[in-house]
Design brief:
single chain; 282 residues; two-stranded antiparallel sheet; 9 helices; 5-stranded parallel sheet; disordered N terminus; alpha/beta; 10% strand; 39% helix
Amino acid sequence: MKHLRRGLALLIAILACALPAAASAAPNYVSLGDSYTAGPFIPVWIPPWGCLKSDHNYSHLSAPDIGLALHDPSCSGAETEDMTQTQGVSPEPNPPQFNAIDADTQVVTLGIGGNDIGFSSLAQDCFSPQPNSGSPCKDKYTAGGTDQISQRIADTAPKVAGVLQGIHTRAPGARVYVVNYPAIFPDSGPSCYPILPVADGDAVWLRDKEKELNQMLADQAAANSAGVVDWYTASIGHDACQPPGFKWVEGPVPNNAAAPVHPNLLGMIGASKLVTAAAKGP
């Protein structure tokens, strides 16, 4: 029996030497972000279910062309803190998004900041029950001489910087890109009541706040060794006021499979082309 055990041990050692070493983790692309990254209600919905994530969001569409394995921990409702903390969505939580980054990560895209400033709730809060040429929502949020939303954007800037620095720490060899937010309102002029049911003055103000948010993201990208994927500029003329087949973002009552006031499949296709071009560029 002793000789048999020795023989088996020798055989195992020989086989171990003959087998190839375990493969290292594959080079990968990590897509971090909130609902504008996740793509809620765009078919097909994938787990974790509480994140309302689509297999046709821009990262899933661009990864095959980039040629990297995809890690997509993006999740609807995510804020900057959810990069390092578990996000308590139901029925199962979403782990910290930074868990998806490893030493083999070569490309990272980041779409974050809108929930930190409460942009979705702001848009809904500004909906008007009837056409109005004034700016009741702007008046509410700027009462007393302080623009509350501008202050929220300023307060979010160091959080975005911290996220970008955290990415570089975890994946020092990765190329990092901030994906900004696409145009919800027309790039100039009033809104398109009732498709986007906000007062004319509020439409101008909300558009300015989105541009201010995007500028903050660009500033933080420039200050923290990251590029910008300019979804906003590419989406001009594809805002929620456009007809189906042209719009990249839906209104409060979607015409296509997408969450209200969120990108649809055409918007994700548009973003994916930008992500692919950035990731494969010089």
